[in-house]
Every structure is written in C-alpha cells, then in structure tokens.
C-alpha cells in the first residue's frame, strides 16, 4: 500500500499551514492554520473492509514540567512518548482520499466533537490532556489537530501519518476512545499499512 500526504515530503518539515502552532519571534508560538493535509492512498489489498487513519508524534517529553518554560530546555535524552494528533476509524473501504481541510480548518478552542466526522469516526487526540489545565482551551479534542511541539525542546519532532487497511468494517469504538484503544482494537486485523513521516520544530535554534 502507498500513501501520499499532500505537501509533506518524507523526512522534510511539515508545512506551517498544517500546524496547530507556528513560530512567533515575540512570544515563541501563535496558533496556526491547523488544516489537515490531503491524504491519498492506493495499492489496497483484497479483503479490505475499512481503514484507520492516524498521525502521531513519538518525540513528546514523558515529563511535561519544563515544557515551554522560560529559561529552561527539554533535554534530548529525556524519555519520549507517543502523542496522537489524528485518529479516524471505520473509514469506508471505498475511500482513497481525504481532502485538505476536510477534518480540520483552524484551531477550535475546546476541541471538535467526537464520533462520526466528515470521514469515518473521530477518536480523541492528546490535546485533550495537554490543554486540560488551560481554562480558555480545555475540552475534548477529536479528529485532527496538527503539530505544536515545545518551543524549548532540544530535538526536532517527527510526525508519522499512517493509513491501515483492516479486515473488519468497524472497530466498534465509541465515545472518547484514544490512540491506545485504536491500536488495541485493530491488532490482528491489519492487512497492510503505509506511512509518511514529516518533521517540525518551534525551537528557533533548530529551524
């Protein structure tokens, strides 16, 4: 199976139009256009009954105490964890394209709704947890919300866009299901997968 992500070249920076946060020289970060990129795929195996779409960052600090704190940096050797930015399940087997901006077009304070979206069924992304302590932004974030790595991180972050072809029509996930729930539910049902990886940083020393 082959995946193409419009505007994202393997191993190169993700364009700012797809980012939740963009570099701002005055206060480190401003909200970005936060559009989902176009995804298109082919080479789908026989027997495919649905797709899962996900995007995640495996480079997120496991301890958030120093994230975006003046006078501090997040060391490169700090253990890292996955941060899910996009989860769609039960994407119909006939689908081969998700248009740019279809699942997200702009930052939505307090998040987008879970459940059926423009394409498939939305799971919650990790902005739900990350923004929980911010009274202006706290909410349930479903569907796509793009890159916004800590501006004081010593490493460039990687963003894995993935499409998985499954042998089931539905993963039977409802409510506020997360990336780990998706991975668990699709285990043993994946016929083929494809991935494109882009990079992103808000650290001026790394840009």
Our count of domains comes out at: 1
What is the name of the CATH architecture? Alpha-Beta Complex
The chain-level mean pLDDT equals: 97
Helix content: under 10%
Number of strands: 11
**In what order do the strands lie side by side in the largest sheet?**
8-9-6-5-10-11
Secondary-structure element sequence?
EEEEEEEEEHEHE
Computed CA radius of gyration, to the nearest angstrom: 17 Å
Largest sheet: 6 strands, antiparallel
What structural class should be given to the helix and strand makeup?
A: mainly beta
**Which stretches of 5+ consecutive residues score pLDDT under 50?**
none
Helical stretch count?
Answer: 2
Could you tell me the CATH topology label: Phosphatidylethanolamine-binding Protein
Q: CATH superfamily name?
A: PEBP-like
InterPro entries: PEBP (IPR008914), PEBP-like_sf (IPR036610), YbhB_YbcL/LppC-like (IPR005247)
Protein name: Putative kinase inhibitor protein
Organism: Marinobacter litoralis
Pfam families: PBP
What descriptive keywords fit this protein?
mainly beta, Phosphatidylethanolamine-binding Protein, YbhB_YbcL/LppC-like, 207 residues, 3-stranded antiparallel sheet, 6-stranded antiparallel sheet, Putative kinase inhibitor protein, PEBP, 6% helix, PEBP-like_sf
């Amino acid at each position: 199976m082959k995946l193409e992500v419009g505007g994202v070249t393997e191993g190169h920076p993700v364009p700012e139009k797809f980012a939740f946060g963009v570099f701002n020289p005055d206060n480190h970060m401003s909200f970005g256009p936060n559009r989902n990129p176009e995804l298109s795929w082919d080479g789908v195996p026989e027997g495919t009954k649905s797709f899962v779409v996900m995007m995640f960052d495996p480079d997120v600090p496991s301890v958030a105490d120093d994230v975006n704190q003046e006078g501090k940096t997040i060391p490169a050797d700090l253990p890292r964890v996955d941060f899910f930015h996009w989860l769609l399940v039960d994407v119909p087997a006939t689908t081969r394209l998700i248009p740019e901006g279809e699942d997200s077009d702009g930052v939505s304070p307090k998040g987008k709704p879970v459940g059926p979206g423009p394409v498939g069924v939305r799971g919650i992304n990790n902005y739900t947890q990350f923004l929980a302590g911010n009274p202006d932004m706290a909410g349930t974030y479903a569907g796509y919300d793009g890159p916004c790595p800590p501006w004081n991180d010593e490493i460039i972050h990687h963003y894995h866009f993935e499409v998985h072809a499954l042998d089931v029509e539905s993963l039977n996930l409802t409510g506020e299901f997360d990336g780990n729930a998706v991975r668990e539910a699709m285990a043993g049902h994946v016929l083929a997968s494809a991935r494109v990886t882009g990079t992103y940083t808000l650290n001026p020393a790394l840009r």
